[in-house]
Amino acid sequence: MSTDAVPSQPAPPALAVSGLTVRCPGADGMVPIAEEIFLTIAPGEAVAVVGESGSGKSVTARAILNLLPHGLESEGTVEFAGESAGRRPRGRRGARIAMVMQDPFTTLNPLHRIRDIVCETLRTPDGKRLGRRERRREAVRRLAEVGIADPAVADAYPFELSGGMRQRVGIAAAIAEEPLVLIADEPTTALDQTTQSEILALLDRLRETRRMALLLITHDLRVAAGVCGRVYVMYAGQVIEELPADRLLTAARHPYTARLAAADPPLDRRLQALPPIPGSVPAPGGRPHGCRFAPRCGWATSACTSDPVTLSDLGTGHQVRCARVGESLDLTHTRDLAEVTPGPAPTGEPIIVLREVTKRYGHKLAVDGVDFEVHAGESVGIVGESGSGKTSVARMMVGLEPVTSGSLEVRGIDVTSSKVGRDGWATVRSTVQMAFQDPSSTLNPARTVGGTITETLRLTDVPDRKARAAELLQMVGLDAGYANLRPKQLSGGERQRVAIARALARDPRVLLCDEVVSALDVSVQAHVLNLLNDLRRTLGISLVFITHDLAVVRQIADRVYVMKSGKVVEHGLAGDVLSRPRHPYTQSLIASIPAHA
Amino acid sequence: MADRPVTLSRHTWRTLRARRRQTPLLVVAASCVLVAAAVLMIFPGVAPHDPDLIDGAVAFQSPGSQYWLGTDNLGRDVFSRIVAGTRTGLLGPLILAIGTTLLATLVAVVAGYLGGHVDALTGRVIDVLYAVPPMVVAIVVVGITGGGWWIALAVLLVFGLPINIRLLRSAVIVRARLPYIEAARTSGFSGTRIMVFHLLPTIAAFLVAVFFLTFTYGIVDLSALSFLGLGVPPGASDWGRMIAENRAYLFQNAWATIGPTIAVVLVAVSANVVGDWIYSRYESRGRTR
Fold this sequence. Notes:
Largest interface: A-B, 37 and 27 residues
CATH class of the domain at 352-591 in chain A: Alpha Beta
Number of helices of chain A: 20
Strand order of the largest sheet of chain A: 6-7-8-3-9-10-13-12
Oligomer: heterodimer
CATH architecture of the domain at 352-591 in chain A: 3-Layer(aba) Sandwich
Structural class of chain B: mainly alpha
């Protein structure tokens, strides 16, 4: 059996990884996290490794770079341009391979000037560090290459730059030594939509002009399909499919890939329901013996679970690790999913009304004269990039931040007035509840799930709090047994469900969701979005959904507000705003989303 | 697959070795703390002699079967005096630790949670207290008031507060801005309830740390004040005072000095080890990941 995937190329590949296995210490001995990975990238080729958290994609990248965290062991061979990397010290790898990290805010040393960061690895021919003037000249030239034309940036410190600029600097530093291979680990995840597309375009341009191989690690199928030529899909430590990028979203042959692509919300239409993937990614050490995906796969048969499945070649660079590859499975693709039209203009009475609301933090005007309404039973989306003021609007609506000026009424109570009183706040609290972004800190780690919910139920007049807590957990799709677990024992998606259950405990009429799915994997995101849509239908509550993701807002909102620099630049029915945007900013937001097949 | 048993055993060995290295120290330290606490509670039952009985005839006895650690210049039994010394030597630091933990927690949680003017005012008061060296103030105050053990304790308590309030406040501030506390606010809980039932459990580890650190410092600081003659009255059985009084007679009976020194060091170190262990058990509770 050969799992080697060398395409027919004359020159040796820029990067060839074979039989790479990474192990970590587990409860009993070393447990594999990534197994038998074979990757090849030709010079100047862009290849993506996609997968959800727990797939082993990041650890694979780190093993290639010999940057594994302490305690992890790797085996297998890594070759650069036909030369084995062997057990070469990290310094020697530097010249051939470089990495761009995920978070531009922490990858640049805050104490160094940009020119020193960019030129840190450069040496004169006789091995000396560059002089100060040369460093500056070289830095200006290299910054221009990554699209920073302003020479003053070379003398700046990282904190003076925006996230996108920092990521450009990170790229300039990474490619300073003209590497053969550039590994980019989620390089755009921490960035705004418009910045993201610029950085991806930059990486693509550098790859072409420098004939550099690009290995892009990402969870985002759209990014992978938009930037790369070939895609490796990883699941539970294995490559389960390798395919040309143009087939990723439409012609994947592994059930997992197909379901993952289908769970990714489309931008251009609203689906009845996103098809989620049941279950969760098995942890290292607890992975099934047969097909890794079999327990979650609708097409699994006994043949799938008996023996490990090998990659089978379908020709034209397409390989699949599926036991039923020979049969034509009826895999659902995004285009097959039922579409619905979003709700009509709101008819219910307004519950929350904002008029000319501003919010000032010191000298910074975060929210600048916003008019906003939430009506009974409708679903409103607030879209914007970071710093647009969307979260501040939400926080004012639940009283977490005082309003600087303007009026904000919740069920007729003006929360900006100083005499709201205890009863007034009680009304506001039982009307609006909020779910937060970060699943890791949304629940009190010192409490059990049941404790958190029953605690909140103290504020209502529910007689049997335990029974009601179990009921609430059921409503968000969790078993009553979850009541005894602590947040640490839950996955991100489960924590968000509990957070939603907690918000529902007060029986609110409006549920505010602040980026509740942005930290979740696509398949889990689909679960949560479906849940919110269901809750809205069954409970008749209104949703205010705050997000930076236009495709997500398309799936959930009837009406959309687009915010930029504290102002609402455009609002209207979701279909109108997202399909026929009128404001140039909205148009640029939509244009920046990677092409979707 | 062939190398699997090897890696497994190597891993197991590593854990075992790590555990073996830690546990005995903890056991010894915990026993020390327990023995000291037991002695404190059942004293004077365990003292073989009356600690304050002066008998010139038996001054400077060497350690032996009658006087286990010998006698001092006035013929008092050193061992009995060390036992009696637990009263001030342990009770003082205990009161100090409890008092500091309670007060520091109260101030830190209220200031950290409410923020704004309350927090700013607390911060400035702490700044002022920081500028004053506690030992010097202790010496002056005790000197002016004529001293006394309770005064010494009070001074140490007041000047021990700032650093502990700072420590706890920073922990509170980090957590007060976390979604789970904000969720409690949006749910509609009262400030008091959030502070007591939501915030406090998540800083449990810090409370443990504050308690044991203050206890350890208390042992050393109170002994130091006694050594300087500012704590307990002359003649009382107190470790610090014993060291001070007996160091002139090092060559007659060294144990009269070494004994209480060992007691101070042993109890302080043991309390620290035990505190460290309890801290590590609570440490993960306030964390979110």
